[in-house]
Amino acid sequence: MEKKIKVLVWNEFRHEKQNEKIKKIYPDGMHAVISKHLNSQGDIKASLACLDEPEHGLTEKVLEQTDVLIWWGHGAHHEVKDEIVARVHRRVLEGMGIVCLHSAHFSKIFKVLMGTSCVLNWRDGGKERIWTIEPSHPIAEGIPEYFELPETEMYGERFDIPTPEKVIFISWYPGGEVFRSGCVWERGHGRIFYFSPGHETFPIYYDKNILKIITNGVRWAAPRIIKKQECKNVPPIEK
Ligand code: ZN
Predict the structure, then answer these.
(1) Residues with CB under 5 A from ligand 1 (ion)
(2) Cα atoms in the 13 Å half-sphere on the side-chain side of 87
(3) Interval between CA 118 and ligand 1 midpoint (Å)
(4) CATH 3.40.50.880 fits domain 5-118+181-227
(5) 94-115 pLDDT, tens per residue?
(6) Model confidence over 144-179: pLDDT tens digits?
(7) Given a cut of 80, is residue 238 above it in pLDDT?
(8) Cα 106 to averaged position of ligand 1 atoms, centre (Å)
(9) Dist. CA 22 → ligand 1 center (Å)
(10) How do the domains of the chain map onto residue ranges?
(11) Which helix (H) or strand (E) holds 35?
(12) What is the reported pLDDT for 228?
């Protein structure tokens, strides 16, 4: 049997406990919905971790056994310990894939990987039309030319990121805003996929296209090399 891709779906997992509306949509957390879908795929073995676990559920041993880490964080980025961020960073440089979702654009790990401020424009409400502009990219496999989310949070340009190696999706909003909503980079041996939809108050992680894109992202980001390299001298984390 083919070896399964080991995915760890990491979630801050606070909104779902603290807000009744969000708890109704995601009673076991957004990470549980994403993980359930991934585990239905046959080639992926997904498990869960969250902020309030010891070492945020990101021990050396767990990360060692992770092929792709999915990250969702929002209100508590500052609570993620710098030494854990450095540990995740080192694993990405060694070849672990990382998929950063929605407000993870402001997570410590994403900012370290990008080296820029990662600020963007945003506002509440409205629909989002997601255009597939690189249909031949593996992350766009099976995704239509465009699809819409009826309710979303607007994330708009300018998004302060280094020019992506590929922009796979661009989002449009009725306010006229646009956003590079699906972008990829490589750092060291690791592949990075940022995908912006996923505001916690809407059932976005039940949408079949969104789940398909995340699944494609996991398959794309899975490490292609097994050989390990020492990457101890990672840059310091900015406070
Ligand atoms: Zn949001």
Answers:
(1) 103, 153, 199
(2) 17
(3) 15
(4) yes
(5) 999 999 999 999 999 999 999 9
(6) 999 999 999 999 999 999 999 999 999 999 999 999
(7) no
(8) 11
(9) 12
(10) 5-118+181-227
(11) helix 30-39
(12) 58
